[in-house]
């Protein structure tokens, strides 16, 4: 079991049991892929359960990051032997990254990094 828990005693004497910083207990990845002749498409989903951060908070607060599910999409088409197109959208659903202190009611940050769209063409002769 790679996921381990640790007990930390603060300078104030309080002991907290938590996961190791940066490690989620559950990480899942799934991909659906379809290809036909010159056409390809792919949908990828990544899930990561909540985890403890290495960030330092005020007054010995523990910083946690909430679970997140990120969806990516990619499609391509080869028009000819020498000309093709690729469309890629990362973070399709604009999933935020959220942190909190100790419990989910004490919000730290909510960050939206947005969708990233890439459109590319290839040409060779």
UniProtKB/TrEMBL annotation:
<protein>
    <submittedName>
        <fullName>TonB-dependent receptor</fullName>
    </submittedName>
</protein>
<dbReference type="InterPro" id="IPR036942">
    <property type="entry name" value="Beta-barrel_TonB_sf"/>
</dbReference>
<keyword id="KW-0998">Cell outer membrane</keyword>
<keyword id="KW-0472">Membrane</keyword>
<dbReference type="GO" id="GO:0009279">
    <property type="term" value="C:cell outer membrane"/>
</dbReference>
<keyword id="KW-0675">Receptor</keyword>
């Amino acid at each position: 079991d790679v996921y381990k828990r640790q007990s930390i005693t603060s300078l104030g004497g309080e002991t907290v049991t938590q996961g190791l910083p940066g490690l989620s207990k559950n990480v899942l990845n799934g991909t659906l892929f379809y290809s036909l002749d010159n056409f390809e498409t792919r949908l990828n989903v990544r899930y990561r359960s909540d985890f403890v951060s290495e960030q330092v908070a005020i007054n010995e607060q523990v910083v946690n990051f909430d679970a997140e599910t990120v969806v990516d999409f990619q499609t391509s088409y080869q028009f000819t032997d020498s000309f093709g197109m690729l469309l890629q959208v990362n973070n399709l659903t604009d999933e935020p990254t959220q942190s909190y202190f100790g419990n989910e009611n004490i919000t730290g940050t909510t960050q939206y990094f947005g969708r990233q769209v890439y459109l590319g063409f290839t040409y060779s002769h």
